[in-house]
Amino acid sequence: MDVVNFLLVTVIIVTVTWFSSPILAATLKPSPALMLAESWQPDQDIAGYTMSEKFDGVRAYWDGEHLLTRSGRIIEAPEWFTSRLPRTPLDGELWLGVGRFDEISGLVRSSIPNQTLWREVTYQVFDKPHSPQPFHLRYLALINLIQTADVAWLKLVEQKVVSNRAQLDAYLAEVEARGGEGVMLHRSVSLYQGQRSQDLLKVKSVQDSEGVVIAYIPGEGRLQGMTGSLLLRLDDGREIRVGSGLNDTLRHTPPALGTRITFAYNGLTSSGLPRFARFLRIRPDE
Predict the structure, then answer these.
(1) Which intervals hold domain DNA ligase OB-like (predicted)?
(2) Which residue among 24, 164, 252, 279 is the one 20 to 30 A from 51 at the CA level?
């Protein structure tokens, strides 16, 4: 066998071995069908909703055996953290506390659990996927489930009845005053849906959304030779440019094409596109 053929066979063997490795295969599962929020608009009626704090953590789906990111990647949590969780699907946020998003994001992406830091993590649970019950009954079931489990790091996200706009505004102000991210509205009679839904709404002083990077727009002037803005495809198929919020590091090495990012914006244009869009961060599970 000549050198070229030997190298080719070696590459094939290594490739097959790598992708058939049980270790690699175990790190990714099918993306869980999670219920995703729409952004609340000031003219939307909030009758029939409950409200809760929106935690600035990393979304995590518990399938009864593993914690998974939205993309289906297994989160390498310590065995002691997961072994006492109920063996029923849960939906929630892994949270380290106010202002510590970067820490929890890095922890979740790590393949080697930081045992010390995981001791500070709580799993803030707000829903019970796959249940056929409406939300208000799923919430009652969660209360019982979490009380019975009696696990220190397993927390119930408290729901409050909201009757009018004044109550919502007051609660949003209270949450943001202590450094919280915002408020979630959940329609009491809604069923769990594995898609984006008006039955789940996020309320923030500054709105945010997500999009996928599909191209780079070259910079001009001071930004000559760098990325001026990212071209994003939104979930509805429309496209917008996001340049504000990118630092020079990201302009030199922008997020890879196909990466999903979060951007902030202030209201919508007359055509329904986000106004004043600006980069916030790469989604934690990318």
Answers:
(1) 218-283
(2) 279
